[in-house]
Give the backbone structure.
Amino acid sequence: MDSAAELLKYYEVYETIGSGGFAKVKLGRHILTGEKVAIKIMEKKELGEDLPRVKVEIEAMKSLSHQHVCRLYHVIETNTKIYMILEYCPGGELFDYIIAKDRLSEEETRVFFRQIVSALAYVHSQGYAHRDLKPENLLIDEDHNLKLIDFGLCAKPKGGLGYELMTCCGSPAYAAPELIQGKAYIGSEADVWSMGVLLFALLCGYLPFDDDNCMVLYRKITRGSYNNPHWLSPGSILLLNQMMQVHTHLGYIDEDCITEMSVSLKISRQSTLQLVNEWKYDQTTATYLLLLSKKQRGKPVRIRPQLPVCDVMSCSPQRLGVQTLLFDDDDDDAEDRCYDDDLPWVPLTPQQERATCPSAEKRRDQTKHAPTPEREPIAHHHRHQERRERCRERTNENKENVALANKDADIFALPAPRSPVANRKATRPNKRVLTTPTRNNTNKVGNKVDTPQGGGSTCKDPSRKRLRERVEGKEEEEMELLAFSPERRSRSLDLAGASRGDSSQKRRGGKVFGSLERGLDKVITLLTPSKRRGLRDRPRRIKAQYNVTLTSQTNPDQVLNQILSILPEKHVDFAQKGYTLKCRTQIGDFGKVTMAFELEVCLLHRPDVVCVRRQRLKGDSWVYKHLVEDILSTSSI
Ligand code: 6BF
């Protein structure tokens, strides 16, 4: 029987709502119940090597049942096609929701992020790792709840989730360092990293690690360097920092703690590391874990100098074990410690200095990199002097900071060093660097605060911000390749190239889509307004939705014409159906369509103005965001 006939026995099929690498998703209705569904349609012939991925997705979704995981209802397999009937999420992608709002408040982020965490905790508890977490893979249902989709890249390691995986997958911007480095990794840990990136995207409206050059992006991710915009609360900063932890070469033991301990113990870092790695649950273990705990609560990673009073109290090193190590109960005594020149001088690590004196950190700017294992070679007396000054500043500023950080302290549990998974986790000091804020003013303001020093690639000017490519469908699998192959990336995805006029596609006499391959339903001739009226007399009246851009105009034809005149400039091919423009960009790569979206001029109910409804059908979300922003802002509507 014909494939479609089999589907049509049970479902009414409506318009396409999206297409990925090898699947098309259509709206549908289950005939028996009348309920709406999403129908994912895959052509077996086109699947080729991706067929196993579809099987993986189906098997995973069959065994998952959770309020924030998209439900699979029905699988129809015919000779030529596979249909997956899935839960209907009319709110569309979380991605579009974020960009429509520029960014979300912490309150709204909290609601969504809890749902994401609960979905992932469940998925992990079932032995799966998702491996492609991004806001495009979270849909919003009719109750405004999130549903996780796209399990095509998920993995279920045979020995359980603690076992390492090797396949490099997902979208580079959301991928954990160990993943893009091609190392073995723990799937659930990689998901936690991606959740950190996702959380950042929710709170900021742009990506923490972004660059047009794959190698630069790769370096940013492996360093774990990103900028914290000024609007993030200390709690958010801390949480993000915890989620985007880079493994270090020290075998996933925290470098700062080791540095601090090695100085205090007066032994090499290597020896310190060996001692810690014995996990004897002795003084060394306790020191390490307590230092780590301090760090995780946003306190300086610091061992107290040995106080002379110890000798009086017979707290000899022997009695206490490896070495007498006294800890700060809190940081209240910081000032005393700083000014007490009689005490043995314990130098501060660069990280400690930052943690101790936020103002010093601000001067340095907010760009932070991986910790340097060695201490800074600054002359002793000079440092001493500097330290005094910093401590003076600190008494004014740091208490407040620590107090803020402490509010969130109990979110973070100490890692259990014995468990193989936790053993791999290293904590690192705050690190963040260059971000690429969007055009909105708030972000610009934020960017001023985040004056990066070293990297030089922060784009203050949004037009300079080049766009991230879609790594979707088949390309997702080749992520490793993409990460190392800038040429390939620019060949298929160079938007700037297209706007320079590299595209060979030229529009003539109003005909659109010219020789573009089959794809959008029909080639439509640009119609004059009078003919257009025949198709649709007047624009649709709609209610305000988040994928709608309001204009200040009242004449829809004028708005339409403004958009029509700008599209060729932006090298966007389009077909017109009444007040709807079906748009595509075709960039370089042998006529490959890299993006498809719709713009529809509509009338809003209240206020009575013209608006433009946008809908992305295909292509990288961030590229789409910038292109549509560009079109609508240049159209002067
Ligand atoms: C599982 C993949 C899925 O979709 C949008 C709507 C309705 C339902 C939004 C616009 C009508 C209703 C006007 C990929 C491209 C969108 C999502 C696509 C993948 N796996 C779905 C489920 C989609 C799924 C479930 N519901 N929907 C959906 C989306 N619209 N208004 N981007």
